[in-house]
Amino acid sequence: MAKVSIGLRGWRFEEDEIFTDDEELKPLDEIPEDPRERLLRLVGLVEEPCDVCYLDYGEDEIHRCNEAEIVYGEPDGEVLLCPEHERELLYWFREAGGSDHKGSVEFADRFHEWVAAGNEAPEGYGSVEHVEEDPDGLPDLPDQQEVQDRLEEGFDGDRIDILELAGEEDPEREELTEADLTESDLDLSTDYPSDR
Ligand SMILES: [Zn+2]
């Protein structure tokens, strides 16, 4: 099945897990837990600044930061990057120990520390191998209102367990959840740079 990025490049979703055959967003309770968590998180990440720009300029000069176009890592431990700074993440991940934190929510903190300590990719790093995907080719992220509507739909029908959305286990879903997790473990490389 086809994998798609939506809104930001990096995180990838199985198309048939999040969209109906008519390419509409599925009701949230029909979306498996891992992609649903990423989806809900993504809605809050669009239009956020690039982390490296932000570390360079800070809140006072936030207008100088590029808007992030790329996301790597785990929900709540994600790294946001502009195309210009993707090379810092690639270098850190491949050459400076970053891949040790793959799959961990510490991923972002460790990268931010590395950047804040003044590290950066050597000049020219990544410029040859860099393959730019067409950002205009990404489907748009459903907007905040649409996701909100989905949540409310769930309350009406009493189908969404809000605790589950907040990360609590629902015993009835346990089997499915474990299967999802196993699948996403095997599939982690799609959310991270390749190890080359
Ligand atoms: Zn940047």
Automatic annotation (TrEMBL):
Residues 166-188 have a biased composition (Acidic residues). Residues 164-196 are annotated as: Disordered. InterPro entries: DUF8114. It comes from the Archaea. This is Uncharacterized protein. It comes from Halorubrum sodomense. The lineage of its organism: Archaea, Methanobacteriati, Methanobacteriota, Stenosarchaea group, Halobacteria.
